[in-house]
Amino acid sequence: MKRAFLAAFAALLLTVPTFAVTARADEITIGFTSSQTGALNVDSLAQLRGFEMWRDDVNAAGGIKAGGKSYTVKFVTYDDQSQGARVQQLYTQLIVQDKAQFLFSPYSSGLVATAAVISEQYGALMMSIGGAEAKTYQLGNKYLFQTYTPADNYLTGALEVVKSKKPNGTVALVYSDDPFSKAVAGAVRTQAPAMGLKLVLDESYPPDQTDFSAVINKIVAAKPDALLGGGHYPDGATLARQIYDKKAGIKWVTLLVAPDSAQFATLGPAATGISVPSQWAPEVTYKPDFGPTPADFAKRFQAKFNTPSDYHSAGGYAGGLIFQHAIEQAGSIDPAKVAAALDKMDITTMFGRFKISTDPKSHGLQLTHQMVLTQWQMKDGKLVKPVIWPRAAATAPILYPIK
Amino acid sequence: MFEIIASIIDGILVGSVYGMAAMGLTLIWGVMNVINLTHGALIVAGMFAVFLLVQAFGVSAYVVAPATLAIGFFAGVAIYWIAVQRMIGRPPLMSLLSTFSVNMILIGLGTSLWGTVLFNVEVSLPGLTLGNYTFPGTHLMAAALTLLIAVLLYFFLQFTRQGKAIRAVSGNREAAELVGIPTRRVLAMAFGLGAALACGAGALIATMFPFTVLAGGAYQLKSFVVTVLGGLGNPAGALLGGVALGLVEGLTTPFIPVSWTSVIEFVIFIFVLIAYPRGLFNFTFRRS
């Protein structure tokens, strides 16, 4: 009796490892950090929601299908507090301890650059979402894949609008002293003169600045036709508010990132006329090769999170979608095969086109995704944000001058 | 040319509020030789107090501002009894560490309650427009209220019984005990007063600029610079120091990149520490 019992127990023990291994094999672990606290938290939260919506959609449909198996997506995620030092620690932990098979990047160029150092060191595949600075991809990487349009092209559209409304006009460039904004500003410095626009002010401010009166006085003294610049949400929103309070009366204002958030509308009249270069807007008319249409994504996101989608959330969702497609194309979850599939891809999702550079000197740099320019306008007493540039994609006329 | 004048006026307006923030720090420092590292957290407390009260009662921020002074006072007395009282007379490092810990607790609590998003108090006050330049009404009002509070503080310290008791204790604690002044209570009151000033300054700053839970740090740093400029323990000096700092900011920013302003401020800080350790404006309060 005892022997029979022991034999049965031994048999049971032998089968348990099989169960455990099978269960783990049907799961893909994706590791990343998001800025749940700190200055980047508004934008990073939107990106996180995009990730989560993709994960929920994929798992509801049975998981990612490759090589005859279905893999459920599991996230391992931490709060990087908007700090590079935390990103360094946490991505190392994600790779070494949590054994994440793939990585998504944190939000913002500075943090992506830091995470990329770690991911490349360990040879881990990382989808870069929310990092526009081009330099990160020019340091010789093998497993980085950028979804966003690089920073160099952020303000090109705004410059084109200024040129069309006031050829040979003057531009004030006032930007936050962080890697992303500096990269964008650097591009403006070369592109503006080439378009016949003169730079009459070129200044940076510390990212945590809250008192812009000195800077605004300088802008007013320089009498520019347009103001371009900003940084991320806190400084951009503050700058917009104080420009309005000081009645600076600038005819055209394009700020980075901040005006794209739905929260920017709380500025009320201070938001009117402010434009923002956007990686995406719900009104875009891309026809996706797979996945939801832009309108479908926007509607379901609003229903799921009770807040409008923006380019941060759309980028997050698209990053997951593109990654999923790469696994499906590769037919395997082997990182080298997935990387090869990503290298070959030239597809369109609700976010736009995706095709990265395979030149070793700029591997992973996004080549085909395009920016739109959206502008806050008053319509029937409410603030809305239609696309105004390029005109082919526009859904409303350009409001100029804004004041 | 007018740009420079506008810049100077802007600087003086904002500088006066830095001065009010510093008044709280310098009072505590001067009276009990304690460097209050909860100063930044108290400023943030004032900001949130005004934000929450305006949200709860729907009245103008200036109506609830006196309440923030009261909140600051009671918070200060509480912090004194919990963290500071036993550190008086001990090496300065102890009170530094103790107030630093309270600061960490307060900021941690604040972050878990409100995160680190930007908050904004809506105040609509017509500004003053001269030519191309507009001075926001909130800045003008804040400077005016600061002046009022500074005058009230002066009268309190010079002419009221409690104010004189504070000055007596700061001059010589033992002698004050000998004449029957309850020094522990007076010190608690002084700490409360310093905290009230910090909270009040926070309330005024909230009407001018947006803030986060972490915003106190920058203002605390400016308060240190202003306190050194004005002389330790000298509230009048602190106000003048704040105005002077604002003046320096206003004079330099039209000519140099804005990001260099902090560098200039701290160079001045070090210069004053070395050349005028008792402060530039040290005339009335402490005679030794």
Structure explained in plain terms:
Chain A is an alpha/beta fold. Chain A has 2 domains: 11-149 and 284-362, Response regulator (Rossmann fold), CATH 3.40.50; 153-278 and 372-393, Rossmann fold, CATH 3.40.50. Helix content of chain A is 40%, strand content 19%. In chain A, the strands form 5 sheets. In chain A, strands 2-3-1-4-5-6 form a 6-stranded mixed sheet, sandwiched between helices. Chain A has a 4-stranded parallel sheet with strand order 8-7-9-10, with helices on both faces. In chain A, β4, α4 (109-121) and β5 form a beta-alpha-beta unit. In chain A, α2 (41-60) runs parallel beside α10 and α3 packs parallel to α4 (109-121). Chain A is elongated and about 95 Å long. Chain B has a domain at 13-213. Helices cover 73% and strands 2% of the residues of chain B. Chain B has 11 helices and 2 strands, in the order ααααββααααααα. The radius of gyration of chain B is 19 Å and the shape is globular. Chain B starts with a helix and ends in a 13-residue tail after the last helix. Classes of the chains: A alpha/beta (403), B mainly alpha (288).
Write the layout of secondary structure elements.
The complex is a heterodimer of chains A (403) and B (288).
Chain A: H1 2-25, E1 27-34, H2 41-60, E2 64-66, E3 69-79, H3 84-96, E4 102-104, H4 109-121, E5 126-128, E6 144-146, H5 156-165, E7 170-176, H6 179-194, E8 198-205, H7 213-222, E9 226-230, H8 233-245, E10 253-256, E11 275-278, H9 294-305, H10 311-330, H11 335-344, E12 347-349, E13 352-354, E14 372-375, E15 377-379, E16 382-384, E17 387-389
Parallel strand pairs in A: 1-3, 1-4, 4-5, 5-6, 7-8, 7-9, 9-10
Antiparallel strand pairs in A: 2-3, 11-14, 12-13, 14-17, 15-16
Helix pairs in contact in A: 2-10, 3-4, 10-11
Chain B: H1 2-32, H2 39-57, H3 61-84, H4 92-114, E1 128-130, E2 133-135, H5 137-159, H6 161-171, H7 173-178, H8 183-208, H9 216-230, H10 235-252, H11 261-275
Helix pairs in contact in B: 1-5, 1-8, 1-9, 1-10, 2-3, 2-8, 2-9, 3-8, 5-6, 5-8, 6-8, 9-10, 9-11
